[in-house]
Amino acid sequence: MLLAVSAAMNWQFGYSLGKTQFDSHVFGAASIAADGLKALLPFFIFAAWRNRNWSQALGGAALWAVCILYALTSALGFAALNRSDTTGGRTIQAEKYEDLRGQLHQITQQQAWLDKHRSVGMVEAEIDAAKQNVRWTTSEACVNATVKESREFCESYHKLQAELAAAKKDDVLQKQAEEIRGKLGTMDGRAAVKVADPQAAIISTLSGLDIAHVEVALTILVTLLVELGSSLGLYVSTSTWRINEGPRRPLPEPVKVVEIIPPAYQLPQQHQPQQQPAQLGAPKSDIEAYFGDRIRQDDGASVTALALYDNYCEWCEQSGRQPVGLPIFSRQLTDLGVQKAKIAGKIRYIGIRMTGSGDEEEGSEVAAIG
Questions:
Q1: Where are the alpha helices (DSSP H) in 16-147?
Q2: What kind and span of H or E run contains 304?
Q3: Could you give the C-alpha distances from 56 to 40, 46, 50, 59, 233, in angstroms and in order?
Q4: Residue 355 above 60 pLDDT?
Q5: Could you give the residue ranges of the DSSP H alpha helices within the chain?
Q6: Fewest beta carbons within 10 Å, which of 21, 91, 107, 198?
Q7: Confidence category of residue 77, pLDDT binned at 50, 70, 90
Q8: Is it the case that residue 265 has pLDDT exceeding 50?
Q9: Quick one: angle between helices 148-186 and 54-113, nearest 10?
């Protein structure tokens, strides 16, 4: 899944580099190929390292570094852009939310400042009733109030007018407040958050670091998770599949062999191996057991050292034994009386052959040389 996410990030980054749609698809395909190569290269690098192919390991490491650097830059850009868009959108929402809350608070204050009043309908009805009073006519609609009774009537009339104005203003403010409350109700609850990036804010509070540094660190963390997980996760998760494999045959250890050139290939009777088959019937060690099981004396035959050692390792695997190194194997064979010589550039054990082996052809070859 991380590999798929990384490939999608690289595709988007590569697609944005093209001038035309065809160029964009070419760059996008190259980005996905580089991402797949990034995941496969660790297998080749560690295999070359294990086999001591230093040039292949170095070349693979250089190519892997280029691929992962390209993937890191594209993932960094993708993560930074998305985090910036997310926090920016959240900032706008929070500012809009705060503005609406401020407007609602102002409207509430204006309503509190208004004098106590009745509803518009009640005040208008009382005003209409006052206009039916005789003082309304004698004062010429409260324009020419000369007597005390007319002045008192006109004063109460003007108070009704003020109360009516306050009631109408309150109705307007109430409608505005209801409209703002409706907008607040349709907004996401996350808009009430006062900070644009709550995650970075809480980490900044706990660690004491600047919030800008925390946001950069979080962006890098997401990038490393995707890219390192996609590049090394496949190798790490599959490297344990070989845990149940049997023990591997140990590699032959380098050994210094002293060249011994016999005067003639045919050995005298006294130079034949001193160990007799009767003595090998009760082996005292793994080498003696192998010698009695797989080796036969033959004056006209010889076996190469590596072929005999490979046959010994095969015998150990079949019998459930742990093979010894090539130097120890060679030394113990010499202790059993088996002689070796360098013939035609190869180290050979003389006077023996492997039972059931195809090395008799080599023996006949050596006999012809002799």
A1: 21-50, 54-113, 120-130, 134-138
A2: strand 295-304
A3: 14, 10, 11, 5, 22
A4: yes
A5: 2-15, 21-50, 54-113, 120-130, 134-138, 148-186, 198-207, 211-238, 277-280, 286-294, 305-319, 326-335, 360-369
A6: 21
A7: confident
A8: no
A9: 160
Average pLDDT across the chain, whole number: 77
Q: Which residues make beta-bridge pairs with 339? A: 350
What torsion, rounded to 10 degrees, do the Cα atoms 157, 159, 163, 165 define? 80
The amino acid at residue 32 is I
- Helix pair angle (148-186, 120-130), 10° resolution: 160
For residue 158, which of 145, 172, 173 has the smallest C-alpha distance? 145
Instruction: Say how many residues make up the chain.
Output: 370
CB-based contacts of 211, cutoff 8 Å, min separation 6: 197, 200, 201, 204
Domain chopping of the chain, boundaries = 2-95+197-237, 114-192, 269-369
Answer for the pair 353, 359: CB distance below 8 angstroms, yes or no.
yes
Amino acid letter, residue 180:
I
In terms of C-beta density within 10 A (0-12 exposed, 13-18 middle, 19 or more buried), how is residue 295 classed? buried
> How far apart, in whole angstroms, are the C-alpha atoms of residue 366 and residue 350?
10
Q: How far is Cα 44 from Cα 24, in angstroms, rounded to an integer?
A: 30
pLDDT score at 94: 76
Q: Which CATH architecture has domain 269-369?
A: Orthogonal Bundle (1.10)
